[in-house]
Amino acid sequence: MPIAVQEQNPVETIKAALTKVSVTETNESFDLRSYSHFDATPSIGTEFRAYSPDGKPTLSIRDILGNKEREKALGRLVSERGVVFFRDAVISPDEQTKLVESLGRLGGKPSTSKLHVHPLTMGGSELGDEISMISNRYIFDNHFKRDDFTVLKRKFHADLWHSDITFEPVPSDYATLQIRKLPKVGGDTLWASAYEAYDRLSPVYKSLLEGLTATHVGQGFIDIAKKQNTTLREPRGAPENVGQHLSAVHPVVRTNPVTGWKGLFVNRGFTKRINELTQHESDNLLDFLFEHISANHDLQVRFRWEENSLAIWDNRSTFHSATEDLDDVERVGTRSVSLGEKPYLDPKSTGRREALLKARSQ
């Protein structure tokens, strides 16, 4: 007779249930969890170690690159855990683009969805159009310099939470980032789980949000382009991602097609208006949801970068934010972003916790 859920530590219940719906349950013969790793928090983040303290073999990103079965298993794990980290991951920017494209393709994204070309990149980049340079000194291209890195000019960090390019009609599924010019300390990145953000809402709130849509706008990028008297790049990796307005409408709650789990899909960086509400109602509801994401540490994970560290995440089910605490120290990384499907809500989908507990009871 199975042990009742209430008799166990809820953290252990969730972790035990996750094992039952991990990649080994999807007809994949490559079991990522047989390698030395740890879950960084109960709700988000899994890290593969560069060394093994538990006797299990270590897993390098080079053990996965180019192997479709292993890449598919990795994509599944990323979608389940939100973000996956590798230490000592020797990978070139070109390999980053190939990996993230493969993750999306193996996850079933439309054939018209390629890699994203950011609207603020200039043509003829040394690394190509599909790699974005992430720096605290400029915005995606050194043509667009920043002057807000001193302590008194920094943005309030709760305002930096976002999911990549949700201002596009076809936003991102997977993304990769490796920091290639490291500070000695600082410049951490945080991720938060959209699954857990959804699960922490009351049933009444969930029901309300699932009937709503929101408008996302990349206004900051539009303003930068106007200030520099330049136009935004287009097309941007999918036939739908064109135009100079950088605006799209998406459901407030979306389903991740890989896991079938619901997640909250608004972010302070780009979500400007809930369309079915008055402006006052929308502002108040969005303020609550933004604080819900940024203030709840139990749905977040913080990652300290080391040389050759690699992060791979699912933008459909996570939010992230850099920590801008570097003053005059430079931090530079290479990011590749795959485009997925148009966001949708499947009424038959469930929350993550509900799905995991149901899997455990079977």
From TrEMBL:
Q: Which organism is it from?
A: Kwoniella europaea PYCC6329
- Gene Ontology cellular-component annotations: cytoplasm
- Of which family is this protein a member? Belongs to the TfdA dioxygenase family.
Domain of life, source organism: Eukaryota
Q: What Gene3D superfamilies does this protein's entry cite? A: Clavaminate synthase-like
Tell me what this protein is called: TauD/TfdA-like domain-containing protein
Question: Which keywords does this Swiss-Prot/TrEMBL entry list?
Answer: Dioxygenase, Iron, Metal-binding, Oxidoreductase
Q: Which Pfam families match?
A: TauD (PF02668)
Looking up PANTHER family in the UniProt record yields:
ALPHA-KETOGLUTARATE-DEPENDENT SULFONATE DIOXYGENASE, TAUD_TFDA-LIKE DOMAIN-CONTAINING PROTEIN
Which portions of the sequence form the region Disordered?
Answer: 331-362
The cross-references to InterPro entries, in alphabetical order and at most eight, read: AtsK-like (IPR051323), TauD-like_sf (IPR042098), TauD/TfdA-like (IPR003819)
| All copies of domain TauD/TfdA-like, residue ranges | 54-332
* Single GO term (MF): 2-oxoglutarate-dependent dioxygenase activity
Listed Basic and acidic residues bias regions: 343-362
